[in-house]
Amino acid sequence: MGxxxxxxxxxxxxxxxxxxxxxxxxxxxxLRLESEASDPDPEVIQDIFRAAHxxxxxxxxxxxxxxxxxxxxxxxxxxxxxxxxxxxxxxxVDTLFRCLDVLKIFKDEIATGEPAAVNTDEVMRELAALExxxxxxxxxxxxxxxxxxxxxxxxxxxxxxxxxxxARGLKAYQAQxxxxxEAAMPAVRAFQALLAxxxxxxxxxxxxxxxxxxxxxxxxxxxxxxxxxxxxxxVHEVLREVPEIAIQVLAPYQPSLPAATPGPAEEVAxxxxxxxxxxxxxxATGAPQPAPGAAPPAESNSGGPVRTTRSGLRTVRxxxxxxxxxxxxxxxxxxxxxxxxxxxxxxxxxxxxxxxxQVMSSALAQLGRLTGNLQEEIQRARMLPVENLFRKFxxxxxxxxxxxxxxxxxxxxxxxxxxxxxxxxxxxxxLMHLLRNAVDHGIESAEERLxxxxxxxxxxxxxxFHEENHIIISVRDDGxxxxxxxxxxxxxxxxxxxxxxxxxxxxxxxxNLIWAPGFSTKQEVSEVSGRGVGLDVVQKNIERINGxxxxxxxxxxGTEFRVKLPLTLAIIRALQVELVGTTYCIPLGSVVETDRxxxxxxxxxxxxxxxxxxxEVIPLLRLAEAFxxxxxxxxxxxxxxxxxxxxxxxxxxxxxVDSLIGEGDVVIKPLGRFIxxxxxxxxxxxxxxGDVAIILDVSSLVDSVQGEAGRLETVAQ
Length: 717
Description:
Helix content is 43%, strand content 22%. The protein is an alpha+beta fold. It folds into five domains: 9-131, HPT domain (Four Helix Bundle (Hemerythrin (Met), subunit A)); 156-275 and 297-303, Alpha-Beta Plaits; 320-384; 386-566, Heat Shock Protein 90 (2-Layer Sandwich), CATH 3.30.565.10; 571-714, CATH 2.40.50.180. Strand 5 and strand 6 (313-314) form a beta hairpin.
């Protein structure tokens, strides 16, 4: 991008990761500013300012001038805000959010390398209007830290350059800045410092040299000797612009004095320049605290979220492809472990009591424990807190509420709950639609709420928590609730069910009609919903990742959607069944029960075989016929059949199989783009004997039966 610095693909990736964190931090801070507009927390303003400051420096290093200029203009407004010269207003918040939207576009531009068609003139004018005329009496900058820098002896050429500059009236300064140990790009930070000094003067000597910095050969600090016409306060201000460095020494160059490290007095002066920070903020840096009597640490310009130590453990960034490969490898180990178990079982039968089989049994048990531990640790490495997903929703709810003219209290709980990265990636869109639905359909207008004796502001709660071996994500509101009578009327009007069938539905069954394709009780299309993407799409996307969703609602009190998700998509627990000599796997989370049913108990309703269990009609699906499998010639059906009853969203069907094999962990393998999607099949796995087993897509199987047979329970007598 013409930055004048050799930016590698890795540098770009690190920048994008940092920019994402900074933008999210700013968004969360601005939302909090708006909620505390009457009495904003100075620490929140400082955090937003720091994030903008860091992003400005990073983008300038990459050479993205537009991004740097915009964040600089934001800095000016935020600086006036933290000095109390402007107040938090709706126009100010709206402008800051528009700035974030533009910055996100710029970030995508850097990620893709494709120029973005965005004009910043309007938002820059808004910022300028908010900034107004700067006060003439600005507080003086803090005094820079004194001391000397252990610089190497000057060469004749460097000495001549220094003397010539001093003869022209320029001043010589020495500086030493420490690079933050948490900096993801220390060489970039060092180069930023070099650029900052070069913009206001001329560098005589640097340790490491610019060439070494460009080759990523940097240590813990950067030492400089330079000449400039600016004051020491101006130089200090310029260096403070560089994120993730600490200014340890900045003083006039005095070659007659012996080189020395800064003494206690100078270090105290350096610490005095650091902006005040709360104890919590200081503790969050993970930096070691000085011993009693020691000098305070030098100023830190880390600015914004960084990866730090927690409970003595350091967090590092790992490419997701590496984690995916590790999980695939663990999956292969699980398969081989199962294969060895089968070999050992045969060996024990053939050589019962043999010493070799006993040794193998012990070794295999240990291998099983190690594989299990490895599998668990890799899964933990893939886990992310749902906070990474949840934090994008407050801004969305704010914007939707403003468009709908509603006041919403949005509460988020359980952000620390962890999910597999692959699950988080898949669940984002369904959750977004459920939240939109809660604001648009669920929460009434302020007038309706007041008339019903409710507060004018509605409440929407997003919560995540563990439940057994699953994660539950709940979206609930205190709105109007789902009225079964309105659901019945709308379903009949849209031709989803007949009027007679609607009358026979219980209230819970009627409420579940909202999952039907094309269903809506909304009379008008809004900007928020009603664009042809209904709750049926939400349901299918959740079921596609072996999850489920249910609705709980009380008229006049509110609605809750409970999304049940597996912890991971890579390895699942499954019931293994046999069908025409082939093994099939049914995700255990969908299995209700298994049974052997006499064929004499099978009934026929509307040309569909059914069984009745505990008064409930359950349609049957013969998998062999559904998949077109050929039975051997002369096959006769036994007097009893094996039935696996599965359920999705309360809808049950019975899968007819030849026999039950047992439960076990299976590694999910996608079918691949050449095979594509096959109805009733979600993937495949490799069994211990090397054979391939098919993993069933229970959701599509249930849909195929229920769609063909209708709601059979309403006609069974």
